[in-house]
Design a protein that fits this description.
7 strands, 273 residues
């Protein structure tokens, strides 16, 4: 008899938890001191059963809600949130509600940090290790909260232009920190580097009055064949300047000087005689 989709998902989740340092145990034979991280299957709560209750250093720290592969995880965090508040009395814990919740199919996993100022689920590529969840649970303030309350810059001996540049960058960072659900978990170092590049380009577009989507769409269409020695032309400030120049009809005396200029649309400006 073939196993059910739910059982297949549990097997995958078991392996993923093991790979991240969690010892998966049944509720009947649980020993929460056996390892730094223990995941107890089918743990009874006040409102049902948690598919996995996570213990770190012998204290409950989070839950995992399992779903069959292909099941959409959007909305499942509502069910997980109920379980984080339904821990029976007497169970040792870090916080109540429990600080962390996962929803997983074994192929896709979401994570919510309930200690964030505005908790929300986000996709992750793996479960956190027990020691990392312990570190997060013991913080006085989570990273998102800290980024949302950056102090006013002490200009000190900075030049005015330096102070203006730093404040502009911090305002851009603050918005990303409190309003972008995936920013603080890029999935890998390379993913974080790529995200930083795109955020830099987007904020640079905003700073020079360029529409970010129009800029990225145009650049993606042209960059593969664009001469490397002229790549600076595609920086947001130069791109925006070229587009503004292209929307204004040049005087007859200036038109000959524009011969050969490549406009953002990819068309060459032709001097009018």
């Amino acid at each position: 008899m073939s196993e059910t989709p739910e059982a297949a998902a549990r097997e995958k989740i078991d392996r993923l938890l093991n790979q991240c340092g969690w010892d998966v145990q049944s509720h009947a034979q649980m020993n929460i001191t056996a390892c730094p991280g223990v995941a107890v299957r089918e743990f009874p709560l006040k409102t049902g059963f948690a598919d996995y209750l996570l213990y770190a250093d012998a204290k409950a720290i989070g839950i995992v809600e399992a779903k069959p592969e292909g099941h959409t995880l959007t909305g499942v965090e509502v069910q997980s949130a109920k379980y984080t508040s339904a821990l029976p009395a007497g169970v040792p814990r870090y916080h109540l509600p429990l600080p962390f919740a996962y929803e997983s199919t074994g192929a896709e996993t979401q994570f919510t940090n309930n200690l964030d100022p505005s908790p929300r689920s986000r996709e992750v590529f793996a479960f956190h290790r027990p020691e990392e969840l312990i570190r997060l649970a013991k913080l006085d303030s989570q990273v998102r909260a800290n980024l949302g309350k950056l102090p006013v810059l002490d200009a000190g001996r900075l030049w005015p232009v330096q102070s203006m540049a730093i404040n502009t960058a911090e305002r851009a960072l603050r918005g990303i920190a409190v309003g972008r659900k995936n920013w603080l978990f890029a999935g890998s170092d390379a993913g974080g580097a790529h995200a930083a590049v795109f955020y830099t380009l987007i904020e640079s577009c905003k700073a020079v009055g360029a529409e970010p989507f129009a800029y990225l769409r145009d650049i993606f269409a042209r960059i593969a064949a664009y001469p490397a020695r002229r790549i600076a032309d595609l920086m947001p400030v130069n791109w925006a300047a070229a587009r503004r120049a292209a929307t204004v009809a040049p005087p007859a005396a200036v038109a000959p000087l524009l011969g050969g200029l490549v406009l953002p649309s990819g068309e060459a400006a032709v001097a009018q005689s």
